[in-house]
Specification:
Mean pLDDT: 93
Distance between the termini: 17 Å
InterPro entries: Acyl_CoA_acyltransferase, GNAT_dom, N-acetyltrans/Recomb-assoc
Structural class: alpha+beta
CATH superfamily: Gcn5-related N-acetyltransferase (GNAT)
GO molecular function, one term: acyltransferase activity, transferring groups other than amino-acyl groups
Number of helices: 5
Shape: globular
CATH architecture: 3-Layer(aba) Sandwich
Protein name: GNAT family N-acetyltransferase
Strand content: 25-35%
Order of helices and strands: EHHHEEEHEHEE
CATH class: Alpha Beta
CATH topology: Aminopeptidase
Number of strands: 7
Radius of gyration: 15 Å
Length: 166
């Protein structure tokens, strides 16, 4: 029997769990694309839990629950930019990212956005390409004493887009 997946809005009490999920996702899932120094610098973004909580609270953040436990989250900035999309390593490949992205795109469209953008990690690049996002620019982001590459992508939201498919 497959686990039940549901989405709900972010709550302030989620911050510690989502910070740990963020770190685990980076450290366990991005090793083929980023070295250990890059992973550690990236994961350190959640070290200041208050700042991480403020970032989540300042955006439209949804939490995916799998059998009642947080399995991932997405944060939509300014109704047009997927700022954060992370899935717990134990839930990778189970449709959590797809469900979160479907919801973020539907919310963006419902709030009048004509397109959604994302700065996709090399690990997430294929996921977003399969969803119809087009690469526009390669970015090199300075983090601590290293650089992290990602790709700026954009997806136009048409009449048939952003409708969850189940």
């Amino acid at each position: 029997m497959s686990a039940r997946l549901s989405l709900r809005p972010y709550l302030p009490a989620d911050a510690p769990v989502l910070a740990a999920l963020f770190r685990a996702s980076i450290l366990d899932l991005t090793g083929e694309d980023y070295d250990e120094e890059q992973q550690e610098a990236w994961a350190a973004a959640a070290d200041d839990e208050a700042a991480f909580a403020a970032r989540l609270a300042g955006q439209l953040t949804l939490v995916a629950l799998k059998d009642g436990a947080p399995a991932g989250f997405v944060a939509l900035k300014d109704n047009t930019h997927i700022d954060l999309l992370y899935v717990h390593p134990d839930a990778a490949g189970a449709g959590v990212a797809r469900a979160l992205c479907d919801a973020a795109e539907a919310l963006a469209k419902g709030r009048g956005a004509k397109a959604v953008t994302v700065d996709a990690s090399d690990t997430a690049l294929g996921f977003f390409q399969k969803r119809g996002y087009e690469a526009h620019r390669r970015n090199m982001v300075p983090l601590a004493d290293t650089w992290l590459g990602n790709t700026a992508m954009k997806k136009k939201l048409g009449d048939n887009d952003a409708v969850p498919r189940h």
